[in-house]
Write a structure and sequence with these properties.
The complex is a heterodimer. Chain A is built from 12 helices and 8 strands. By secondary structure, chain A is α/β, with parallel strands linked by helices. Chain A has one domain: Thiamin diphosphate (ThDP)-binding fold, Pyr/PP domains (Rossmann fold, 3-Layer(aba) Sandwich), CATH 3.40.50.970. Chain A has a 6-stranded parallel sheet, sandwiched between helices. In chain A, helix 1 packs antiparallel against helix 3, helix 2 runs parallel beside helix 3 and helix 4 packs across helix 12. The two termini of chain B are about 35 Å apart. In chain B, helix 1 packs parallel to helix 7. Chain B is of the alpha/beta class. Chain B has 2 domains: about 180 residues, Thiamin diphosphate (ThDP)-binding fold, Pyr/PP domains (Rossmann fold); about 130 residues, Rossmann fold. In chain B, the strands form 3 sheets. In chain B, strands 3-2-4-5-7-6-12 form a 7-stranded mixed sheet, with helices on both faces. In chain B, strands 9-11-10-13-14 form a 5-stranded mixed sheet, sandwiched between helices. The longest helix of chain B has 15 residues. The chains are: A alpha/beta, B alpha/beta. The interface between A and B is large, with 44 and 42 residues.
Chain lengths: ~325, ~325
C-alpha cells in the first residue's frame, strides 16, 4: 500500500466517527427521528472490508449502515441529509437511518429486518453468475442474524449453487441486549458456516489492516473458487444498540475497557505513527479538516429541502397507472 | 382461435417469454426435473437447461429473496411458490421486501420479479393446503396482485407481468388449470390493473375473479333461463384495483353481488362494496350482497369442504335477494 492509501483508511474511519457523533447530537436535538444505530467502535470493520473490494463488487448490509454507506462512497452530507429526511438524502428521505443505498456505488442497502437481506445477497450473486459478471457480493450482518432461518437458507443456497458471496458476520457480542452466548448455541459464530461446508475465518475487527488483509484474501478466493467464504469479524460497539439504550446488559467498566484498549482509531493512529507512515501532526490536521468537512455536511443537510407532500406517491411503482 | 387450458396458457406464456428474452428464468420447488407440481413447466428443463429452470431447496424465503436479488442485477426472474399456503413462509420477502424496496430507496432499486403461486380449495387437502388468502397480499401498496380467471387472461397477464418492471404476485387457481377457453394466436398482452366485463347483462352486476368467475358464469347461465341477465365484471387484478367497469355496470344495474373464494371478513367483497357505496351511493337500489367461503379452516371431508366453499346455488340465491 502507498502512504496515501494507509492515510485514507484513517480518514475514512475518523469521518465515520465524527459523522456519528454529529448524528447523536442531531438526534438529541430532535432533528433525526425513528431509530438511530451508531457505528462508533466498529469503524475498522467496514473500512477494512470495503477498501478490499474491486469496483464491480457489491456491498449489502444491515441497519447499522451509515459507516458502510460512506466507505462505499456516499458523501457524508448525503448520509446526513438522509438522516434528516431531506430530498438530498440518498433515499430522498424515504428510507432514513436504516435504509441507505447508492446503486451507482454498488451499495445495495441498508436493510432493517434482521437477516432478510441475506437471501437477497444470494440473489445478487446469482444474477452475477447468470450474466457471467466477475463480481463478488459482500454481505454484512450482525451476530443476531445468524439465529434466524433466512441466514441458514441463504448460506445453504450459496454453497449449493456456487454463488460468489463473502458472508461477513460483525460479531459485536450483543444482539440488541442479548449476549451471543445467551442467544446462540454456538458462540464461535464461524462454526455455523462449517455446517454448510463454507470455509471460514475469525478476524480481529478492531485492527483495520487485519480486516483489510483478511477481506482481500477472502474476496479473491471467492472470485477464484466461485463459491462462498465466511468471515466472523470480532468487534464491539461503544454506544448503545440504538439511541436511548439503558445498557443494563453490560457494565460501564466493560465498555470503558474496550474504549481505552481497543479503540480502532487509537490502534490505527498508533500504528501509523510508530511505523512512520504519518506523523501525529499530520493525523491531527486530518482530524481538524474532517471536523470542518462534517460541519459543512451538517449545514448542507439542514439547509436542504423537505420532500413535498405532492411527491408522497413518487416511486411507489415503476409503472404507475 | 385455439381452445386451450389455463395450464397450457400459462405454460405458453412462460415458454414464449423465455424464448424472447434470455434474462427471464424460472426458479422454485420442483419446477425443473419434476416438470412443475402442476405440470406447468413440463419440458422446460430439457429445453432451457438447469441454469434457466432452477430447482430450489424447500426455502421459500430464499426463493423469493434470491429472485429479488437477481432482479436487482437486471434479470427477470419468475419465482414459483408451490402454493399460496407456502407463501406465508416467504411473507417477509413478498410484503416487506418486494413491496417496499423501490419506494424506500428513493426509486434506485428496480425489481422486475414475478412470484407465481397457486390459490384455492376444493381438493380435500384440509386446512393448511386449501386457503385463498389473496387479499392478504393485495393489502400492501408497492406490490401488484394479479389473479386471472380465463386462459386468454392468464396468458396475456403473465406475459405483461414478466415484462413489467414492478414486483408482481401472480395467483393461479388450483382448480382452474383444466378450464378451457379461446386464446388469441400470437402476441396478446393483457394490461395489468384493468377489470373486464366477461358477460354483459342489465339486471344485476356480479363482481368476481379467478375460480369464482367460473362459478359466477354458471350461475349467470342458470339465471338467464329465468330471464335474469347478470353482468359479470372480472377484476383480474386485485391491486391496483380498477373500479371503472364495476361502477359503470353498477350505475346501469343498481344491484350488485360480489363473489370470492376466500373468507368474507375483510375481503374483496368488503372492499368493493365500500367503494361502490363511496362512489355510487345514489345508484344503490338494494343492499349489496357478498358470497364467500364460510369462516372455518377448510375441512378435509368432501361434504363439509364443498359446503364451506361458495357454490353456484349460493350465487343464484344472492342475486335473487338483491333483485
Amino acid at each position: 500500500m502507498k502512504k496515501e492509501e494507509y492515510v485514507d483508511l484513517f480518514h475514512q474511519m475518523i469521518r465515520i466517527r465524527l459523522v456519528e457523533e454529529q448524528a447523536s447530537i442531531l438526534y438529541q436535538q430532535g432533528k433525526i427521528g425513528g431509530f438511530l444505530h451508531l457505528y462508533i467502535g466498529q469503524e475498522a470493520v467496514s473500512t477494512g472490508l470495503v477498501s478490499a473490494r474491486k469496483p464491480q463488487d457489491r456491498v449489502i448490509t444491515a441497519y447499522r449502515d451509515h459507516g458502510v454507506a460512506m466507505n462505499c462512497g456516499i458523501p457524508a452530507k448525503v448520509v446526513l441529509a438522509e438522516l434528516l429526511g431531506k430530498t438530498t438524502g440518498c433515499s430522498e428521505g424515504r428510507g432514513g437511518s436504516m435504509h441507505m443505498a447508492d446503486v451507482e456505488q454498488n451499495f445495495w442497502g441498508g436493510h432493517a429486518i434482521v437477516g432478510a437481506h441475506l437471501p437477497i445477497a444470494a440473489g445478487l450473486a446469482l444474477g452475477d453468475r447468470y450474466q457471467e459478471h466477475d463480481s463478488v457480493t459482500i454481505c454484512m450482518f450482525g451476530d443476531g442474524a445468524t439465529n434466524i432461518g433466512y441466514f441458514h437458507e441463504a448460506l445453504n443456497l450459496s454453497k449449493l449453487w456456487g454463488l460468489s458471496v463473502l458472508w461477513v458476520c460483525e460479531n459485536n457480542l450483543y444482539g440488541m441486549g442479548t449476549a451471543v452466548e445467551r442467544a446462540s448455541a454456538v458462540s464461535e459464530i464461524r462454526q455455523k458456516a462449517e455446517g454448510y461446508m463454507i470455509p471460514n475465518q475469525r478476524v480481529d475487527g478492531m485492527d483495520v489492516l487485519k480486516v483489510r488483509e483478511a477481506a482481500e484474501k477472502a474476496i479473491e478466493k471467492v472470485r477464484k473458487d466461485k463459491s462462498p467464504y465466511f468471515l466472523e469479524i470480532q468487534t464491539y460497539r461503544f454506544r448503545g444498540h440504538s439511541m436511548g439504550d439503558p445498557e443494563r446488559y453490560r457494565t460501564a467498566e466493560e465498555v470503558k475497557r474496550w474504549q481505552n484498549k481497543e479503540d480502532p482509531l487509537g490502534i490505527y493512529h498508533k500504528y501509523l505513527v510508530e511505523n512512520e507512515i504519518a506523523t501525529s501532526d499530520e493525523l491531527d490536521k486530518m482530524e481538524k479538516d474532517t471536523e470542518q468537512e462534517v460541519q459543512d455536511a451538517v449545514q448542507f443537510a439542514e439547509s436542504s429541502p423537505e420532500p413535498a407532500t405532492d411527491d408522497l406517491f413518487k416511486n411507489l411503482y415503476v409503472e404507475m397507472e | 382461435m385455439p381452445r386451450i387450458t389455463i395450464r397450457e396458457a400459462i405454460s405458453q406464456a412462460l415458454w414464449e417469454e423465455m424464448e424472447r428474452d434470455p434474462k427471464v428464468f424460472i426458479m422454485g420447488e420442483e419446477v425443473g426435473v419434476w416438470g412443475g407440481s402442476y405440470a406447468v413447466t413440463k419440458g422446460f428443463y430439457d429445453h432451457f437447461g438447469a441454469e434457466r429452470v432452477k430447482d430450489t431447496p424447500i426455502s421459500e424465503s430464499t426463493i423469493v429473496g434470491a429472485a429479488i436479488g437477481a432482479a436487482l442485477t437486471g434479470l427477470r426472474p419468475v419465482a414459483e411458490l408451490m402454493t399460496i399456503n407456502f407463501a406465508f413462509s416467504a411473507f417477509e420477502h413478498i410484503v416487506n421486501q418486494a413491496a417496499k424496496l423501490h419506494y424506500m430507496f428513493g426509486g434506485q432499486l428496480v425489481l422486475p420479479v414475478v412470484i407465481r403461486t397457486v390459490s384455492g380449495g376444493g381438493r380435500q387437502l384440509a386446512a393448511t393446503h386449501s386457503q385463498t388468502p389473496d387479499v392478504v397480499f393485495a393489502h400492501f401498496p408497492g406490490l401488484k396482485v394479479v389473479a386471472p380467471g380465463t386462459p386468454a387472461d392468464a396468458k396475456g397477464l403473465l406475459k405483461s407481468a414478466i415484462r413489467s418492471d414492478d414486483p408482481i404476485f401472480f395467483i393461479e387457481s388450483a382448480t382452474l388449470y383444466q378450464s378451457r377457453g379461446e386464446v388469441p394466436d400470437g402476441e396478446n398482452l393483457v394490461p395489468i390493473g384493468k377489470s373486464k366485463i366477461q358477460r354483459p347483462g342489465d339486471d344485476v352486476t356480479i363482481i368476481t375473479y379467478s375460480k369464482m368467475l367460473e362459478i359466477s358464469m354458471k350461475a349467470a347461465d342458470q339465471l338467464a333461463q329465468d330471464g335474469i341477465e347478470a353482468e359479470i365484471v372480472d377484476l383480474r387484478t386485485l391491486r391496483p384495483l380498477d373500479m371503472e367497469p364495476v361502477l359503470e355496470s353498477f350505475k346501469k344495474t343498481n344491484r350488485a353481488v360480489i363473489v370470492e373464494e376466500g373468507w368474507k371478513s375483510y375481503g374483496v367483497g368488503a372492499e368493493v362494496t365500500s367503494r361502490i357505496y363511496e362512489e355510487a351511493f345514489d345508484y344503490v337500489d338494494a343492499p349489496i350482497r357478498r358470497v364467500a367461503q364460510k369462516e372455518v379452516p377448510l375441512p378435509y371431508n368432501r361434504t363439509l369442504e364443498q359446503f364451506a366453499l361458495p357454490q353456484v346455488e349460493d350465487v343464484i340465491q344472492a342475486v335473487k335477494e338483491v333483485l
